[in-house]
Amino acid sequence: MKISASCSPGIEPILSRELKYYGITEQQRKPGRIDCVVDDTHIAELLVNVRTADNLFAIFGEFPVTNFDELFDSVYELPWESILKQTDKLIIEKVRIQDSSLQSQSTIQAMVQKAAYTRLCNYYHIQRMPETGATIKARIHIYKSNCTVELDLCGMPLSKRGYRKYPGLAPLKETLAAASLFNAGWKASNQLTDMFCGTGSIAIDAALYALHRAPGLNRNFAWEHYACYDGKSVQEAKRKAQENVRTQSKFYITASDIDPAMIQQAKQNARYAEVPLSDSPHKPGIFFTVSDFRTTKPMSDHGFVITDPPYGNRISNKQETENLYAQLKNHFERYYKGFDISSFCDREDFAAVMALQHARHLKIIDGKETRWLVRWTV
Q1: Tens-digit pLDDT string for the chain (378 aa)
Q2: Whole-model pTM above 0.85?
């Protein structure tokens, strides 16, 4: 099956490395996605284990289209009976059109559903689809005279781990937290500090990674409702993932924030994620603490800082941002010599403002926001 793994544009190289870890070496990289051909075992492994993909889609059909009659006929020819059972419901959740003579999204949605349902009714020898079973979601992309039909394999996006009951203000998406860890090369044997932890995304995802706890262990997937699903691949992938969980892994993560409410919410999120908490930075687990970043100090002479300082709607003005960056620079130079540091920011000139040499940048498009992940060594 040909699938597409979507991600925030900018982290495709990180997602690509993760896909290669699962044996997927033949890849077609595009902005915000990586296409590849996989078997059922790979699909199940990715659904359960992948940390940096937002969604997985099956590329169900690709064909030329210049008018609505062609669209209907081509969609009708697709083997919908391999996807939807007799009682299932098809929803066209998104239509994207670019440089095409077919401009009406609502007409395209109606036409695709009608063509699919016509084929399904003929196949199942029924007058209408009862739509009482599972819901299958599809997306239609039309670029010039080419149409692609994609089917959602996930259900709830992979970027939603399920533990973040308290998101906070402008939370960092879990997949970006994982990408920052992979980009830095952090391992559980290294001390990790996040002095702007908010509701705990980076710290919690780091703990899950250290424990080898797959993000999809405790959830179901849309693919399991497909008519062609073999009934066992996901459960087998979960069984293997569960065998890899490290219940006694020792890791030292210090996560702080100046806002006591954020720390309370971070602790609650960590409890939902079932990761170990600590009451001291010298003990294994996540040590959440209320503190100003200017008072944080490392517990060793080397380690990692990965953090997401306030910017955008979390800070009042540009001058306040400038002051924060200057204080960060002084603090890192005073206390974090030799540390590997990664910081999210919303300014392309962050390295210049911080007077950083040999800094590496990733430009990331996160929904409507553009942010940069900057990595350097003090």
Answers
A1: 999 999 999 999 999 999 999 999 999 999 999 999 999 999 999 999 999 999 999 999 999 999 999 999 999 999 999 999 999 999 999 999 999 989 899 999 999 999 999 999 999 999 999 999 999 999 999 999 999 999 999 999 999 988 887 676 668 999 999 999 999 999 999 999 999 999 999 999 999 999 999 999 999 999 999 999 999 999 999 999 999 999 877 899 999 999 999 999 999 999 999 999 999 999 999 999 999 999 999 988 899 999 999 875 555 567 788 888 889 999 999 999 999 999 999 888 888 888 888 899 999 999 888 999 999 998
A2: yes
Distances (CA, A) of 322 to 4, 161, 315, 329, 337: 40, 34, 11, 11, 22
- Count of Cβ atoms closer than 10 Å to residue 24 Cβ: 19
What is the bridge-based pairing of β-strands 55-64 and 89-98? unpaired
What are the chain's domains?
Answer: 2-152 (3.30.2130.30), 174-213+243-377 (3.40.50.150)
What gap in Å lies between CA 44 and CA 197, rounded to an integer?
32
The CA angle 224-1-237, to the nearest 5 degrees, is 45
